[in-house]
Structures are given as C-alpha cells and as structure tokens.
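To whoever is on call:

I kicked off a structure prediction for a single chain this morning and the downstream step that reads the tokens threw a length-mismatch warning. I double-checked the sequence; it's 441 residues and nothing unusual in it as far as I can see. Pasting both halves so you can look.
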Amino acid sequence: MDIDGGAGDAEESTRQVQVRFVTKLKPPYRAPPASISIPANLTRFGLSALVNNLLQSANADWKPEPFDFLIDGELVRMSLEEFLLAKGISAEKVLEIEYIKAVAPRKQEEPSLHDDWVSAVDGSDDGYILTGCYDGLGRIWRSAGVCTHILDGHSGPVTSVCVLKPKASESVVDRIVGTASKDRTLRLWKFGAEELLDQPKKIRAFKILRGHTAAVQSIAAEPSGDMVCSGSWDCSINLWNGNASDTESGLVSVKKRKKDGEDEEPQSEGEALSTLVGHTQCVSSVTWPQRETIYSASWDHSIRRWDVETGKDSLSIFCGKVINCLDIGGESSALIAAGGSDPVLRIWDPRKPGTLSPIFQFSSHNSWISSCKWHHKSWFHLVSASYDGKVMLWDLRTAWPLAVLDTHKDKVLCADWWKDDNVISGGADSKLCISSGISVQ
C-alpha cells in the first residue's frame, strides 16, 4: 500500500520559511497558532512529523498519525520550496498551511471469498455490503467474512447490484436490494436486516423484471427506492417499478411453488414502465441521483443525462473512448466522474456553459478503469478501480492519488465506499476486500 508518490529531498538546505499551521479539525488535533520557522525543503512527510511533534508537546498521550497539507486550497505533493516556486507564492510572508488527516487506510480486513469473479458491490447501507458474482449469486455481508444471505435465482453472472432505500411505511427490519444479470433479467429481493443467522440463508427474489433483449449491465435505484433503472447490451435503458407490492399494473403473478414440501413465497414478474432510447452500443453504467434525472454511460463513447418525465436526453458528452463506469457527486453533487477503455479517470462539470471538456483528468492507472465512486459526504474525494489490479483514492486538490491499494491479485471489477471510512472492492481473484480506517473530512 503506497500512500503517495512524494519523496523528501535528501539534500540539506539552510533556507527557512515562516509558517503558521491551521486546521478545521477539533481538539486535540489543533497545534499552537503561533508562526514558526521551518526548513523550506520539507515535504509532506517532514511536515507531518513536525505537526505531530507540536501536538505531542501539548499532549503527552498523543499518538502520531499521518497528515496532509493544503496551501491555497491545493494539496502539497512536493517540497515547500518547489511548491512555492511552482505556484509563484512569495516565501517572504508568513505562509498559512492547513493540515487535514491523511486519507489512507489504516487496516486491511481479511478478504471475503466468493466462488467466482466479484463483479459488483454496493456499500450504500451501513448495515451490510451487497455483492454480485459471476457464479450467478448475490450475497449479503454483515462484515468481513460474515455472509448472512445468498440471493439465488439468476441463471447467468450477476453484473450489477443496488440497494433500494427502505420506505418509511415499511417495517424497518426489511431491506430491499436489486440485481442485474447476463441472463437478461433484473431481480428484487427482500431480507430481514436483523436476522441472526449461524450460516448463510438462501432467499428467492420476490420480483423478476423481464424486458431486455440482451445482457443487463447496470442497475440503479431512484433515491426513494420506488423505481429502478437498468442499462443493457441491447442499447436501451428501462425504468421499472421497485415497490415490494405485486398489485401494481404491469405485473403478472407467478404461482407459489413447493420446495421441500413447503409453499414458498410467490414471485411476480414486472414489465418496464418506460424505455429511454438513444445510445447506439452497450449501456454500461446508469445512475439515478435525483428523482427527475438519470445519467448513463455507454460503449458508444457518450455520457447522457435524461429527463425522466419526458424520456429525452438533455445533455450528451462525447469523450472518444468506451465508457465503463459513471458516478455523480463532488461539489453540490453535480460533477460527473467516468472511466473506461483508457487509464484516465475524467471529471466533468455540466454546470459550466459552453464547454464539454473534462475539468480534471487523473492518469495514474495503467489499464481500463472499471469503477469510480464519489464519497457521498465530500466534495473532493472519490475512489477508482482498474483492470491493473489497483484501487486508487483521489482528491480533486491534487493530481496524484492519495493512496494506492494493491490488495487484489487480479483485475479489480468494482469498488465503493462503506460506512464513510471504508473502501470495498471486488475482483477477478474472487475476493471482496475491505480497506478500513480512512479519514475523509
């Protein structure tokens, strides 16, 4: 695990700069506000050691931890001297340096083993992790190595998974999740969130959604959980009712079937409520950040924003590359992050008129990017996964990754955040990996 690529300058320098360390962190993380004189050749590692010494001098019980440093809103990834020169900042005045907790995992949990490639993961519910696997099964994990439910029913690999938010009118112990598969169907599942199980419990889907004519590649839930959308190799995006009730229109009830002499719960089949048409190749990723808006990415090199009510696309971005993954977040939950068939993670701001060029491009991966996810509480942080076997943590305030996680031994196929301070990822090594203790401010 590499926290960052910076290295200290080994040469001695007598040049000094006057600095004042400031922070938004609460006590006991606050260093004395007085300005001090420090060597200009210090990098972030030397600065971190210095701040830890200041904190330890005020608190004998202080345990050192890594910090990152911001000057004029930009993370320092070189020596102070080099940074000031590159940015044209005068070293004659007192330099204000803000310090934050370094965003890097403190711990790697034991991998959770699957029987095949882990192709999809969703960590949006703090109570569990949802995974999809090429063995055709979905799985619910309470924690590392603890699988409580197995979602059994697909006849092909599970390609995408999503958590549907529980509605206030429903019992809080019930959770609903969705899965998409190469078998051309989506399935919705219900399970007890508080069930205490000694071994994994197999459950059947309560609803099967049919309508795509090719493999389904992506599923996403509308914020309230009332609906889901799906992207497919048939180039279309379908919208579906996500309610647990089987009384709504467009459903055909399937009779109960017997298993081990006992009646099982009935399944119902749903038809698409509407279809969004416009992409000319596989719709590889969909996301539904606001009730009225869906975003999609495609192998036709485009990202589109759709108006749910009219079914029309209101924005098209073409980047000249196959796009694998897409997420919306960052500042005001408005930035578009996407990755695909080159090693570049691109960020667009659709609010800026007259330009559809990326505002950021991060190029530390060396193969296809398979997944990208914004941290839902931060304007700056996101995670990416790649076929190069790496998971990277990013901050928009620097061009270098904050951390490089190399816990997988093969292609990484999916990644997400969990409980705010964990990164979860799955890959072709059949493992779900959890990197914990990540301090995102």
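Update from on-call: the warning came from a stale cache, not from the record. Cleared it. Sanity check on the structure: The first helix runs from residue 44 to 58.
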